[in-house]
Every structure is written in structure tokens, then in C-alpha cells.
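The step that takes the researchers longest sounds almost clerical: writing a folded protein down as plain text. Below is the pair of lines this work produces for a single protein:

——
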Amino acid sequence: MSGPYPRYYAVNDRPVKLVELPSGEVDAQVFDFATGGFISDPTYLARVRGGGDVDEFSERAAFERLVAEQRWAAGERRHARKVTWDHTGDDKVPYRTKLDGKTHEIRVNDFPAEPLYTLIVDGKEIENLDDWPSAWVRPPTPQDVLDRLAKTRQG
């Protein structure tokens, strides 16, 4: 398997891209269904080489369409999952929870110029939300935060 890199694949319908590292080695970047991002997983190098249910994309655009489909599906699963959030007391990032070993945070944006919320997982922006998913449980706003907001509005 020689360059040029990146090269694009689907392994059992999971998007995988092979990229050349600065050292000259090749790494497999695998679609993370939980976040919609890519994570390094060198075991996929053997899977790509070994055949089986592996499709290579000759066009990056076709690979990007698969990634977009998988991100949409991952978002749908994420929104349908019951998640109980904790209030942080922070005005900018008021909600946090741990899921599957990852820290999930909700940032409140400058609405309406921007989407209302941004979901951040382990420090990476994952998706923008204009509505709070109905399966997610939002905690009540602590009284000290309400008091601080009231003082801000008064002047």
C-alpha cells in the first residue's frame, strides 16, 4: 500500500482514512461514532490490507458523503440517548456530563447570530444545536447563577 496519501476507505461501512505522518509512517484515522470525529487506530491498517468488507474511494467527495451520513446518524443516536447533565455554574459552558469516559460540555453561544448551543466532547467542538434534544435532562439553574443574571440585567 503505497502513497499518495491520504487514501480513503470504508471498512464495514466505517469511514477510514490513511494518512502519512511527518515521520513517513502511515496511520489509520477511523471514524468515531460517538463524536463524529476521527481517531487513530493502527489496527485498521491490517483491516484495509486484509480485504473483507473494504471499499476504497477513488474520489474524496464520495468519502466525504459517507462521513456526512455517518455524522448525521451519530447525531441522531446522540440526541435520542437519555443524558442527564450537571450545571457547572459557568455562564458560557453551563452544562457538563461524562459519557463513555469522555467529558461532554454544552456551550451557550451568541444567539441568534450563532447557533444556540455547541456540544464539545473532550475539548473538541462536535456539533451546533438550535434546540435542546428532548431525551437530554437539563438540570435547574442554581440560585446563585439566577441572582448573578438578575444583577446583570439590572445594570
About this structure: The mean pLDDT is 90. Residues 28 and 45 are 6 Å apart (CA to CA). The two ends are 65 Å apart (CA to CA). The first strand starts at residue 7 and ends at 11.
